């Protein structure tokens, strides 16, 4: 058609109609070029999460979530058992009706033992793709992120921890890595907060660990990881996982001890014994407090050490160089999605104001992005347990931090990390912050 129109236009004498046709065809051709460049998908994201809900007929259900401001009627999201570029048939398809959303697939993710994970990024069985007119436009997979910080050191290096968007877990030690379905007791429904052990959390991309320690002098293991007054597992198990991860990567990890619920009282000597134990076990990795929160990541990496231990007792921090002032926890202590949104919106709005005013506060902060039951909620089981609460809130956390608070976020700690997209959101927006600042000059974010 274009050749015919050009031939018509080349006839002697002016021909306004033919010129109009040429301009139309050129414009149409340019429009198709723009579409072929996939500009509609530059801001799009499609991902996979694993529901934390466990019941007699549901465990590890895969859910698809997406964000695409330029979605079109007829677009399709599809789930695959392997890489969709290999022309495999989808296991499940869905036609999105909104620009942001989440959909259950009724397909169970494979149980992934920790020993099957490696220290190189890998896709784990299932893939998702966004298709338009049958053509794949965006893909993703259930993946690990064991080296995401060091892989981006060219732009993360000049930044302080306070300048980086870090994914974290709340009550990191309160995990139950389960191969099959379980029936929760009233205690476990409100105690277990994670589905992955510490090593797996770190391999999947977590860089902030929220640790609570109990002291049990009458047991073989003196030090335990707790959730409140509930004794979960020996602290030595947690430390061994951290050491394994640090020995195999160049990632920087924050090991933040925030509570001492059992066996400490006001006895500082017990705290000193705990710090002595941490120093003995983790000495080769501990970054001395003298580096300070103002140090950038390049300075930390150049030290050859990779572990920051936060400690929630200033009397100990003041006298020991191995522990730092702990990260500031920003709790909402709320029980509904709306109230949690109000809390997080308030703290992130304040952080953005400080960012714009160039106010410098070096101590990192963690938005505690989970619902908090009260005593009667637990006794009467009014909220259905932490798994149900996390499923209700985690996709909202992912959406809010990818569309509203992405510029101000520092650490965001969640329950059941694989039931959220906060790791991918953090990595994506660290990259975009760098792009917005300009690739030629690194401009650290000041919050």
Written account of the structure:
By secondary structure, this protein is of the alpha/beta class. It is built from 14 helices and 17 strands. The chain has helices spanning 2-9, 16-36, 148-151, 153-156, 186-189, 198-204, 235-248, 268-282, 297-303, 314-317, 337-356, 375-379, 386-403, 422-437, and strands at 45-50, 61-67, 76-80, 92-94, 100-108, 123-132, 135-143, 166-169, 208-215, 223-227, 230-234, 253-262, 307-311, 324-325, 328-330, 365-368, 411-414. Strands 8, 9, 10, 11, 12, 13, 14, 15, 16 and 17 form a 10-stranded mixed β-sheet that branches. The longest helix is centred in the N-terminal third of the chain and has 21 residues, at 16-36.
What brief labels describe this structure?
single chain; alpha/beta; 4-stranded antiparallel β-sheet; 14 helices; 17 strands; disordered C terminus
Write the layout of secondary structure elements.
Layout: H1 2-9, H2 16-36, E1 45-50, E2 61-67, E3 76-80, E4 92-94, E5 100-108, E6 123-132, E7 135-143, H3 148-151, H4 153-156, E8 166-169, H5 186-189, H6 198-204, E9 208-215, E10 223-227, E11 230-234, H7 235-248, E12 253-262, H8 268-282, H9 297-303, E13 307-311, H10 314-317, E14 324-325, E15 328-330, H11 337-356, E16 365-368, H12 375-379, H13 386-403, E17 411-414, H14 422-437
Parallel strand pairs: 8-9, 8-17, 9-12, 12-13, 13-14, 15-16, 16-17
Antiparallel strand pairs: 1-2, 2-5, 3-4, 3-6, 6-7, 9-10, 10-11
Helix pairs in contact: 1-2, 6-7, 13-14
């Amino acid at each position: 058609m274009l050749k015919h129109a050009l031939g018509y236009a080349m006839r002697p004498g002016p021909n306004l109609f033919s010129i109009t046709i040429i301009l139309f065809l050129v414009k149409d051709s340019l429009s198709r070029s723009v579409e072929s460049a996939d500009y509609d998908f530059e801001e799009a994201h499609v991902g996979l999460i694993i529901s934390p809900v466990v019941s007699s007929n549901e465990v590890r259900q895969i859910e698809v979530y997406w964000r695409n401001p330029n979605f079109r009627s007829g677009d399709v999201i599809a789930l695959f058992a392997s890489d969709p570029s290999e022309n495999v048939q989808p296991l499940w398809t869905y036609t999105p009706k909104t620009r942001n959303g989440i959909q259950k697939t009724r397909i169970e993710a494979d149980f992934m033992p920790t020993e099957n994970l490696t220290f190189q990024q890998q896709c784990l069985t299932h893939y998702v793709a966004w298709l338009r007119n049958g053509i794949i436009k965006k893909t993703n997979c259930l993946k690990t992120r064991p080296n995401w910080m060091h892989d981006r050191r060219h732009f993360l290096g000049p930044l302080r921890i306070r300048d980086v968007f870090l994914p974290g877990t709340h009550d990191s030690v309160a995990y139950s890595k389960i191969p099959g379905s379980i029936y929760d007791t009233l205690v476990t429904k409100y105690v277990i907060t994670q589905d992955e052990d510490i090593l797996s959390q770190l391999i999947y991309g977590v860089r902030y660990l929220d640790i609570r320690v109990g002291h049990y002098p009458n047991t073989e293991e003196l030090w335990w990881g707790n959730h409140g007054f509930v004794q979960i597992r020996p602290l030595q198990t947690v430390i061994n996982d951290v050491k394994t991860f640090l020995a195999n990567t160049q990632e920087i990890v924050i090991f933040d001890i925030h509570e001492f619920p059992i066996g400490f009282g006001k006895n500082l000597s017990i705290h000193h014994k705990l710090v002595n134990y941490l120093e003995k076990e983790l000495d080769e990795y501990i970054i001395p407090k003298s580096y300070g929160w103002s140090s950038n990541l390049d300075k930390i990496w150049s030290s050859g050490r990779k572990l920051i231990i936060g400690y929630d007792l200033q009397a100990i921090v003041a006298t020991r160089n191995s522990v730092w002032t702990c990260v500031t926890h920003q709790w909402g202590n709320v029980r509904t999605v709306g109230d949690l949104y109000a809390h997080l919106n308030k703290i992130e709005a304040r952080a953005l104001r400080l960012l714009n005013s160039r106010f410098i506060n070096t101590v990192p902060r963690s938005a505690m992005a989970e619902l908090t039951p009260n005593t009667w909620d637990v006794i009467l089981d009014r909220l259905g347990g932490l798994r149900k609460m996390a499923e209700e809130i985690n996709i909202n956390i992912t959406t809010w931090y990818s569309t509203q608070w992405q510029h101000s976020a520092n650490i965001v700690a969640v329950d059941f990390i694989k039931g959220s997209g906060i790791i991918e959101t953090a990595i994506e927006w660290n990259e975009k912050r760098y792009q917005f600042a300009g690739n030629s000059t690194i401009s650290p974010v000041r919050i």
